[in-house]
Amino acid sequence: MKLSEKFSVKPSPTLAMARRAKELIAKGVDIVRLDVGEPDFQTPKPIIEAAYSALKQGFTKYVTSKGILELREEISRNVLKRYGIELDPERNVIVTPGSKYAIYLALKTILDPGEVVVTLSPMWPSYSAIIKLCLCKEVCLKLDSSFKLNLEELERILVDPDVKVLIVNSPNNPAGYVFDKDTMGEIYRLCVENDVVIVSDEIYSMLTYDVRHHSFTEFDRNLENVIVVEGFSKAFAMTGWRVGYVLACEEVVDRMARLMDNTMTCVPPFIQFACKVALEKMDEIVGNFVKEYSRRRELMVNELRKIDEIKFIEPKGAFYVFADFKAYSENSMELSMELLEKARVSTVPGAAFGKGWESYLRLSFATSCEKIREGVKRIREYLEKK
Predict the structure, then answer these.
(1) How many angstroms separate the CA atoms of 357 and 299, rounded?
(2) Is 89 helix (H, G, I), strand (E, B) or coil?
(3) How is 347-363 classified by DSSP, letter by letter?
(4) Cβ neighbours of residue 5 under 8 Å, at least 6 residues apart?
(5) Residue 20 · residue 339 · CB < 8 Å
(6) Strands (E), the chain
């Protein structure tokens, strides 16, 4: 079979490191995994029982591509509870097979080939791949070392008439920063003034520490200039269930539904009933997870401070620390592989998250305190010998 040489989408660099770690583990090597962007908790029992119950009741057939109304109504209630925003579950909500596919659907719906999408780095690498799949161009704006956004530079980029979308991810993967309300308000103002749509990836919105997450829905109650992407993977330990959702205006939701009709059809209904229960029990489930993540975050931060000359900003959201190891190496790909092969600790190289972060490593605290303590200890001991 002769394949086109134009296919330019590369494998996910975050998943590539995970695959190498799994290869070593399969050979019996004792690897401490600090690379994983996945909760180590099991999906809570009430959610599993809800899926099982729905299966027994026969919810195994096709449903509307927008998602079952019961879940969309629960999503709308959840948005009202968290942000005080009233949405129409019929017109403003669509359920998708994961938030990654939701971002693809959103961009595919609103962009024409050749148009420009602005991203903010450090950023989740799949954004770049999705933009390529949409046959669009990317302009990346790098944040400073304290993860502050230069609003003047953003404005200079947004005035270009070819720029149609800005992707914002707060709380952020990999850096764990959370934009404050004033910053988000300024971002929103600049986008409205330049007729740029905000695609807001809020997948970590429920996982914050000492700060409140603000959604762009708070600035745009009618969703005229904002598309919000959310999901169940991170907050509810449901990564393998593959369910996300989008909050958008009626026209965008209808267009996304047509794309769903012709690609994925629908998210399995028994899974959607489980997601409804997840949202109903959000306070209890997520509250317990956040307490444990907060404990792990404190431990990782304290352990990392024992390593001389590394620099990092304490994360306010998600479950990662993004640390600068420049004192030891300016090549994060090489350092990450060294740590994996020689110190037996798996991390993610900062180079995966955009240009300018080549000396950084992402370390996940979505794992046990024992593994965090042992993993950072191994890193410290290895670097002390370099």
Answers:
(1) 24
(2) coil
(3) -EEGGGG-TT-TTEEEE
(4) none
(5) no
(6) 32-33, 93-96, 116-121, 137-142, 163-169, 197-201, 226-231, 244-247, 311-312, 320-324, 345-346, 348-349, 360-364
Q: Average pLDDT in the 327-350 region?
A: 94
**3 state SS of 321:** strand
pLDDT tens string 261-276? 999 999 999 999 999 9
pLDDT class of 351 with cuts at 50, 70, 90: very high
Task: Decide if 21 contacts 35 (C-beta within 8 A).
Answer: yes
Residue type for 170, please? S
C-beta separation of 365 from 299 below 8 A: yes
**Angstrom distance (rounded) from CA 344 to CA 346:** 7
Instruction: Return the amino acid letter for 277.
Output: V
CA atoms of 59 and 50, how far apart (whole Å): 11
Distance in angstroms (rounded) separating the CA atoms of residues 208 and 107:
27
Please give the radius of gyration of the chain, using alpha carbons only, rounded to the nearest integer: 21
Q: Distance between CA atoms of 295 and 172, rounded to whole angstroms? A: 19
pLDDT level of residue 228 (50, 70, 90 thresholds): very high
